[in-house]
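Run folding on both entries below.
>entry_1
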Amino acid sequence: MGYLNQMKISIRKFFDACLEIGCSSEDSEALRLKKSSLVLVPLIIGTAAFLWGIIYIFLEQYLSASIPLSYSIISLFNLWHFQKTKNIMPLQKSQMILVLLLPFFLMWSLGGFARGSFVMIWAFFAPIAALTFERTTKALYWFYAFLALVIFSTMIDVYLQEKMINTMPQLGTELFFLLNISAGLSGIYLLIKHFIDEKEKNANERLQKEHEALLQSTQELKEANLKLEHLAAHDVLTRLPNRYHLHNCLSQMIACADRYQHTMALLFIDLDGFKKVNDNFGHAKGDEILQVVGKRLKSLLREEDTIARIGGDEFAIGIGRIVDTNYIDNLAQRLIDDINLEYPSISSYSSLIGASVGISFYPDDCEDVEDLICNADAAMYHAKQIGPNKFQFFNEDINQRNKNRHLLENSLRRAINDNEFEIHYQPQIDILTEQMIGAEALIRWNDPQRGLISPVEFIPIIEQNGMILEIGRWIFKETCRYLRQSLDAGKNTVPIAINLSAIQFRDQGLVAMIEGVLKEENLSSEWIELEITESAVMENADKAIIMLEKLSNIGIKISIDDFGTGYSSLAYLKKFPIDKLKIDREFISGLPDNKNDIVLTTAIINLSSSLGIYVLAEGAETKEQVDFLRDKGCQFVQGYYYSKPLPEDKFSEYLSSVVKVSSNH
């Protein structure tokens, strides 16, 4: 069985190879089928003629053998030529001629011509001629007609052979016989042609559908590309152009300003108080505010002006042609006024939203787009420093401050790499017992050229550029290292308070950082106190409670710094897990003479006492201030009266020899 299957496969492969003669990969399915059907004629007749010639040679009738052998050689040559040229027309014509001559060769080889020879010529010629020239589209009907003719002629042929053999001329007998052959061959051809036509029709319909689908896909792709181009150049939330699109528009405006010798301007707008909206109402409300702001700003502009949202709560407006600079003054004020209008979704807190605007002109302030943007940004930053709802024009003073700021930022990055920061510690004293109960860790920058630099100069910068997280972790780790070292050396040691900025307090990795450093230094959390400003805690009181509870759960003591300068609610204050309130130095500096400072300080001390919270007054510099605080019930103080902030070695000396250390920390 395996041998038979292998033989069948081989025969099938040989047959398929024969049908592929003259076909190429570029041919359509219909043309391939037509070529394959035409190849069958010389393949079958040529093979049969070859066998016929071999039989004549075997019978030693060499002249008769030459005719079919010549025919077979010509047929095989036609197939070889067809395979080489892939051109179907020479094969069609040559086969037509050979079929025309076939009856003559046949009769010659048999030794003479029968009376029906000429009819036989046309019978063989008909299907080949049809194969070449027929264009009918009703192949099945032709096939049925020829099939009926075959059946009818076969019946007549049988009848004539049986009943009228003596009276029917030989020509008539051969005519009916050859009509059968002609009808059968023509019917087969027409059936094949019908199949080819159907294939072509289906192929054309499929191509039409594919073409329509391709057109549809092309249209969809074109629309998708347009949408992608729009998204690439526009802000998804506000539908306004983005920074990339703004840059292109400003380039065009500058080119136009150069050509027509006029001035253009860029207004940089930053929303004041927007973060509080996000923190108190959620980002969904914040997004609504941004959409409203975008519409309000756009409504104030001319047709030729452009507006963009360049990120976060920042917008930029390009003014293409300026005739009068007063127009920019009025526009900036109108922008601020419209942003200050009420917002329905947060109507009771609309006063939180304000705007700071920075303005830069071309060509007065800059030479290209990048400088135009940088200068407007610098002017906006300066306006924000002046106060909310202000606009500021760029000038050289701002430019110089901006350069100084960049220089300071670069110096700060160098300071981190070169370990130029150091920690100073300021003692915290129990004024009733004159014992040290703790200290505050304060960062100092020891610049090689400028010496010690006050935190007032660099803390705001590192908070704005994000360096506060890296430096804050260094302060915490350095303080823990010092505590661990003191404990291992058996020295007097007190808990140390470390300041947290608002950015650190909002950082989701804060608790993990603290736990990681404590584990690295093998230090108990009881030696650490965190000082957080009142304003940082109250930015989002509900979230602050969660963070404070996490810190409290790991044993960290919490102190509210600068108390009295913010807007704490007593309802929240009693919910906070805090251990200490620090009265801001502004209230202590006026004691004991300033009535307002007396009232506020006394109120804070009494409030802390009623809530069971320790209170510490910072900035105590005179004996009168310390006496006043003691009389009012404030137990702990921190200030120059006892000691200024000391470097690590000096603080250790002070801790061990100057003041007694409280064992109750």
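>entry_2
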Amino acid sequence: MNTSCCARSRLGVHAFCCALIVGLGSLLAFNQQARANVFAAHLETSATSWNFQSGPITFSYRLNQPATSVNIEIYRAADPNTVIRTITNCPTARGLNQVSWDGTDDLGNQVPAGNDYKFRVIAVDAIGNTSGTWVDITPKPDGVNEIGDAQFGAPQGITINREPTSAHFGRIYISNSASTASTNPGATAAGDGLFLLNNDLTFRGGSASTAAAAANSSLVTSTTTSDVLSPWKCNINQDNPNEIVVSDYLDGYENVWVFNADGTEVQRLLNSSTTGPSTGAAANHGNQFCTLLSGIGTGRKLWAIDEDKDAGGTRFTGGYDLLRYDVGTTLSNYTGQPAEVKNGGTTHTNPTVTNFYSGWDMQFGRVKGTSRLYVACRRGNATTGNLAMVCWTLDGNGNLTGALWSVQNPALSVPAGLPDNYAEGWNYTSSIAVDEARGRGAVVSARVAKVLIFNTETGAIIGPAFTVGNGSTTSYRGIDADFDAAGNLYTANANDGHVRVWSPPDGPNSYTTPYSGTMLLNCPYATPTILVQPVSGKTCEGRSFTFSVVAEGHGAELTYQWKRGSTVVGTNSPTLTLSSVTAADAGNYTVTVNGCGSVTSSVATLTVVANCIPDYNGDNLVNQSDWVLWEACATGPDVPASSECLSASPPKDLDFDGDVDQDDFGIFQKCLNGEYEPDPACVR
């Protein structure tokens, strides 16, 4: 167990404990020559409301790969730029890690009670992948076999939650399309369905059975045509990361399902004609290669690439149309027929893109508020289509407004007799993934199992293709892909059952993950009470002046912060002494007392008098003539002087206590110099 994480103790405060649980389970060996872009996910707390007197609170996080360093910053939600505590040297192992906090700030002071504390995890990989190429860095527990080696029979879809503010940030979803267990050595997962993985590729909950969506059991056991028998692509709702849409490819079982983020609830959005909308394309849609969701509530839209789009009630082959349904909240909320966004093999003026054929996969930009839709085609046809990839722009209503760019399929220029995979990376494209935050995307060829990286702004190819596993020249099983938040590429290969991670050729990185919730710190004591408020006063330039406050509350743990206006001028003392004051010290003062909660005093005003030397007749002397003028205001102890005497300048009330008495005479007498100029410091 690593216990090096900034351990600290101090008198009067609970000793800080960094109880750390590193990489629950076995610690894994990694290829140190190439590291992934590291990021923390699945941030959780041992409690959302706690009392520091009963012990520290525990933060947990998962690292997708080993980090070089990890720090945790604690702050108030209302002021994220002000870090009240930094915990350094935290665990860096891949997997689950834990760190505890005792509720103190960087100075060792107990922080005030409140319900808006948050934390963020800053993971740094100073090693990174410096090879200049995309490298397979899938964890290998035994140094040879990859983690969960071939754990799925036919993983057709993969999607990753990349929204940092989501409670499910970093979660990986796999749609598996094999109805029986994988026959690959080391396989651990079986059956159709949606599986939930952590960002380190471990099963959510620790096993394949806990990782399978709870609703799957009803989907895979039924034999009716309304149930999922061949889950295909899966995607996260563009505008709601708590919804996962899964499409079905198999003829006769054309379904589209929506799961909640935990997979415990499921809703059918599109289904076979027996129970679907009664007329038109919405009733007799065909195979669903890929579906996307956008919008929330009644504004929800379903996008679909349909191989066998209905035409007059009869399915036809080779359509691969791009359709959009206004689905709202339930199956019954469809509004009319689907909008035919793009039809295979025909020309549309809006957008002006020709020869759209065999659409296979599509993705939104996945940056929140994106206005782009990317589509990849499975193959090119010499007579009906040569489009390989296109990026469309969308307006605020989700309508395509034009093509930003398009890429043509080079396979069409291949001489006769050469194999389909001659133009490797394009022919039989199975997947497209987009990382707009870094300006790049990935398109995957299923038959040759290779990836091409492209520029999302122009469609231009970035670097050579690289192999991501085994392809199949006889099967349409695909290889799906998605990027995580840190820029790593994940591939799910239905041919060999593997899910792999590919490190980008960008070198080291740093990623900050915020906790999605807030924490409440309770206190066992009452809010501090101010018994004696600070008192306003006057003083002469060059003199000192002291404000004081008397408060009770959390005993010795009370702290103080003095302010002049909004400027902090003193801390951690019930008194504030200003020495050799100047005109700049004049103003309104308050003190905030912190303990279990905080309380701020009433305003006390300091007035600074510029001319305090008692030269009342202005002859630069302090002598008998000035004495006569001062004596005219004398009242005796505790007898209020007249307003004229109290407002006189230079002051007659030299100690500013409201009367003109012997105390003031004592100050005046120190300035008497007869026929000599007085000492400028005589009233100090």
